[in-house]
Design goal:
265 residues; alpha+beta; Helicase, Ruva Protein, domain 3; 4-stranded antiparallel β-sheet; 5 helices; 22% helix; 22% strand
Length: 265
């Protein structure tokens, strides 16, 4: 699933094509929006909020979430998106571009006034331009309040918005904590600070790196490296599934030497 840095880049790219421009046509291909017509709506900005994308017009906001497979495509007028036509959920046309959204599990219209209130349930957004010490403290408070293992808490969008499986694994490694460590045993404030730094460092990169090495196979410490030697100590990286509150399992990787199991309490 795209994480906050990826959605941020999508917002930047879409904003370059849409901000300040007027929609000449809109074609929503989801039942709930079948009669919606945004022709004449001027798009003022495109921004990300965690893993959510907001195309904010004068009167309406188009809210989407990419889920696992959602994509936005910026095309020349009449261009063809490189996806199966049945996956297209919306086509937005300006004089300069066709913007096509495909495989979007969440696509809705919100009144522009109060559009952010619809996302008020999210925790602090690590890429919020207004990020400050108060937001960092609130993220730490919410993470503690989950009472979950750190590897579960970091994926809780109610606690902090934007983190996904890749960042979760890398954060746990860099802080030297096993993913099943209870959040109460974790020094949360430095974890939040590191999450913010890593998200900012990667937001403008098309290829993330958490190691400082941009070479293929060496960009992450543990994510996607199950069974391979740890880049720090050489121990074989472990790979398992970790359950979440939604009942789903996510793959998680860790180094058993650099991230020892938590002490029993």
């Amino acid at each position: 699933m795209p994480e906050g840095d990826t959605i941020y880049r999508a917002a930047v790219n879409l904003g370059a094509a849409m901000a300040g421009r007027t929609l000449e046509r809109s074609d929503f291909r989801v039942p709930s929006l079948a009669t919606a017509d945004l022709s004449g709506e001027r798009i003022e900005e495109v921004r990300s909020v965690g893993k959510h994308l907001l195309m904010r017009g004068e009167h309406w906001t188009i809210h989407s979430h990419a889920g696992m497979d959602g994509l936005w495509h910026v095309l020349a007028p009449g261009g063809r998106a490189p996806v199966a036509s049945h996956t297209i959920r919306v086509v937005l046309s300006t004089a300069e571009h066709d913007i096509v959204g495909s495989s979007l599990p969440v696509l809705e219209l919100l009144p522009r006034a109060g559009d952010l209130e619809a996302l008020a349930y999210l925790g602090p957004d690590l890429l919020d331009p207004a990020w400050d010490d108060a937001m960092a403290a609130e993220a730490a408070r919410r993470l503690r309040a989950t009472g979950a293992p750190v590897g579960v808490a970091l994926l809780d969008q109610h606690a902090v918005a934007g983190l996904g499986n890749v960042f979760r694994g890398e954060l746990c490694f860099l802080r030297g904590v096993h993913p099943v460590t209870p959040i109460a045993q974790v020094d949360v404030e430095p974890l939040v600070a590191l999450a913010r730094r890593l998200m900012v460092a990667n937001r403008d990169r098309t290829e993330r790196t958490f190691t400082g090495d941009a070479r293929r196979g060496r960009r992450t410490w543990v994510y996607g490296r199950g069974g391979q030697p740890c880049l720090r100590c050489g121990t074989r990286i472990r790979d398992a599934q970790l359950g979440l509150e939604d009942g789903m399992l996510r793959q998680v990787q860790w180094c058993p030497r650099c991230q020892p199991e938590p002490a029993a309490v």
